[in-house]
Structures are given as structure tokens and as C-alpha cells.
Design brief:
It is built from 6 helices and 8 strands, in the order ααααααββββββββ. With about 220 residues, it is α+β, with helices and mostly antiparallel strands.
């Protein structure tokens, strides 16, 4: 796919950016091949050489990946002999790149994004190596184990066993925790609080159960 012009470093910036890349590559004793490897081979050594020599305009996203590799920050703007407009443009790009890199939801999958958009009490709060989504408990149906305003983290499983605490929609656009019990023709969703009735579901699909509870977070006041 052809890179759009506004995604490329301008002709005015091109020679300065090329020099910055080359100087830092040599400073860290990287060959062009080393840099290509560090970029996961998104660009080969020949293309990187053309960026350095100003024969090609480098895409901003590749430039910022190189900045991350060599710890290059916005202070380089102080030494650029270019127009204030170009400096401002590059500064804005640095800021946008930083904001993008610090977003917690940058790795959000399409499936999880759909869950967040569908259910009101779901949030994206990744636990490294575990869950990415949390559900806020909005009633006391699962007391005394789960309290109102607790956050529970869940993970999709291939199979669920009797007694598992699962995440399922008990109301439109609301996810809840329920204890799962299977029987030949369906499932029973049991609340721990006896004031809330158990729910009997005769027709069950694999998509109805969104996951099993793997962690809980509670604010201590």
C-alpha cells in the first residue's frame, strides 16, 4: 500500500532526519542490517540507506520507531535549521506519537472492543499475561463474595465446569457474575445472594458465556 504524502517527512525535513538517523545509528554501532532487524524487517537496508542519504522521504511511523530504538526525543528540534512551521509540525507529531504509545488500549482487539461497546459496565484494564477486560459489579447479587462496585477480571475459556464463576449478560447491556451449573439440556446461573433468583437457560451457545473470573479488585475505604 502506498504511503500517503502527509504520513511522510517533508522534503524540507528529509535531509535533517536522514542525518539524525545516520548519526545515531553510528553512535550505537548499528549497521543498516542491524537497524533493519530492530525494525522487524519493515524496511530493508537499501531503503534505510535511501532514508539516510535523502533519496527517499521516510514515513513518520518508521522514524518514530527508530527514535525509540536510539532514544531520540523532541530535543532534536533545537538543532534543526528548518522553518518554524516545520519544527511545529514535527513537534506535534512527537506529541501524538507519545500519546499513542502511552494509551492503555492501543492493543485492544476488535472482539474486546465490541464487548466494551455492547456492555455498560465493562472496561479495558489489561493484566499482563492474563485478562484485558474488567466488569464492575453493579448490584449485590453475588454477596458476600463479590460486593457492589468490585471489579472482576475474566478470561475466555474453551470449556467451563460446574461451580465456575462466569461472566454472562443477565440483563440487556449489563454483564454479571454468576455461578455456573450444567445439566443435559442447558445451564443454571446461580446468584450467591438468596434474594436473587437462579436463572435457567435451556438454549446455550458458546458465545453467551464471555469468560471465567480470574481476579478481583476491591477498593478498601
Amino acid at each position: 500500500m502506498r504511503t500517503r504524502k502527509n504520513e511522510l517527512v517533508s522534503d524540507e525535513l528529509k535531509p535533517f532526519i536522514g542525518r539524525i538517523i545516520k548519526e545515531n545509528r553510528q553512535k550505537y554501532n548499528y549497521s543498516l542490517e542491524d537497524l533493519s532487524i530492530a525494525l522487524n524487517h519493515q524496511k530493508n537496508r537499501q531503503t534505510l540507506h535511501k532514508y539516510e542519504t535523502g533519496l527517499l522521504n521516510i514515513p513518520y511511523n518508521i522514524f518514530f520507531e527508530i527514535c525509540d530504538i536510539f532514544n531520540i526525543d523532541a530535543s532534536i528540534l533545537n538543532n534543526l535549521d528548518v522553518s518554524e512551521e516545520e519544527k511545529k509540525n514535527l513537534e506535534n507529531k512527537f506529541v501524538k506519537n507519545y500519546i499513542s504509545s502511552t494509551r492503555t488500549d492501543k492493543n485492544l482487539t476488535v472482539k474486546n472492543e465490541k464487548i466494551i461497546n455492547t456492555y455498560k459496565n465493562v472496561a479495558y484494564e489489561p493484566i499482563i499475561g492474563k485478562s484485558e477486560l474488567s466488569v464492575k459489579i453493579i448490584d449485590d447479587s453475588m454477596t458476600p463474595f463479590y460486593l457492589k462496585n468490585d471489579k472482576v477480571f475474566f478470561e475466555k475459556k474453551d470449556d467451563y465446569k460446574n461451580g465456575d464463576d462466569i461472566i454472562i449478560a443477565t440483563k440487556p447491556n449489563i454483564l454479571s457474575v454468576r455461578k455456573l451449573y450444567k445439566y443435559p439440556k442447558g445451564i443454571i446461573l446461580q446468584a450467591m445472594n438468596p434474594k436473587f433468583p437462579s436463572i435457567n437457560i435451556n438454549i446455550i451457545s458458546s458465545d453467551m458465556i464471555l469468560g471465567k473470573v480470574i481476579a478481583i479488585h476491591r477498593e478498601i475505604k
